[in-house]
Amino acid sequence: MAKVSVIGAGSWGTALSRLLSTNGHQVTVWSLIESEIQMLKEKREHVSKLPGVKLPEDILFTSDLEEAIRGRDLLVLAVPSVYTRTTAHSMKPFVEEGQIIVNVAKGIEESTLKTLDVIIEDEIPQGTVAVLSGPSHAEEVGRGLPTTCVVGAHNKSTAEFIQNVFMSEVFRVYTSPDMLGIELGGALKNVIALAAGMADALGYGDNTKAALITRGIAEISRLAIVMGARAETLSGLTGIGDLIVTCASVHSRNRRAGMLIGQGKTMQEAMDEVQMVVEGVYSTKAAVALAEKYQVPMPIIEQVNQVLFHDKPVKEAVQELMLRDRKAEHEDLLWDEE
Most buried residue, 178, 282, 309, 316, by CB count within 10 Å? Predict the structure, then answer.
């Protein structure tokens, strides 16, 4: 049995706390919001973000960050990506040398273009940082539906420790040394999911969805590989796997926000209606900046950026994508004859 604290009591943190408790670990959940902690204590359920998922009686809840961190074998950092740096900064005084912190959020910091694991290492240099990601909606993990994820770390022993803590008959975990690829795949697929939602709103159908997924992973892979990630990672759970589920699932907040934008709502109106953090909105500007920095063409993500931040009509963005210059699907494949 491990002593585990989940830092963040949103839908994902709540679902993981149930999983970890069911696995037999001693689990504490922290939230900055006192009313949220009281609700979880009284209802044993996150009534607004994960309704219907009852939490075991032995899970502890606290708004005291020091209490949540001291003496724990594993810290699961589950706050939205926009709060990762500030939360990690607040955690620093209480984290012991070598204490393991696994990031389970997905995003890229717009101001620095850093992935979340790097941000945590910036703020908590004494910690041992890892990342857990993959096609894993909280609504399904909370209900105990079979799910697979991948954990990335700098060393194998850390990854295998986290693997053992999370692994169960309904939650299978693989290991990988490619933390960068895991972080980029998890963050950038949210931008493609916004495009998928926009296409759904316009009634464009399965052909369009398949095109967005396949060309979307091509864009993500191009950038990730140039930045130093491995191609194998982007063809795995946190690349194509996470992209498929986020573009197609009814649980996807990014897809839902994209649908609302495709129906004519502004970006802010869509985010307000979803009532949860839409990570893809925050990752879009960072993705465009990374594409410019590394000189990688990312036409789908560029069009999403134009729709979100430059009031470009969705139909016009789709038309531009369809009418781009003719290209080969894979430029590095050679013809038998010219």
Answer: 178
Q: How far apart are CA 147 and CA 237, in angstroms?
A: 10
Q: Give the span between the Cα atoms of 194 and 199, in whole angstroms.
A: 9
Is 189 among the catalytic positions? Answer: yes
Q: Is residue 243 a contact partner of residue 192, using CB atoms and an 8 Å limit?
A: yes
Instruction: Give mean pLDDT, residues 119-132.
Output: 98
The CATH number assigned to the domain holding 283 equals: 1.10.1040.10
Helices 11-22 and 156-166, packing angle to 10 deg: 80
Report d(CA 110, CA 106) in Å as an integer: 13
**What pLDDT does residue 338 have?**
64
pTM over 0.85: yes
Judgement on whether residues 154 and 19 belong to the same structural domain of the protein: yes
Number of separate domains in the chain: 2
User: Which residue is catalytic, options 114, 189, 209, 285?
Assistant: 189
Last residue of a domain, one of 177, 192, 227: 177
Per the structure, the complete domain to which residue 70 belongs is given by 3-177
Mean pLDDT, range 134-144, rounded to an integer: 95
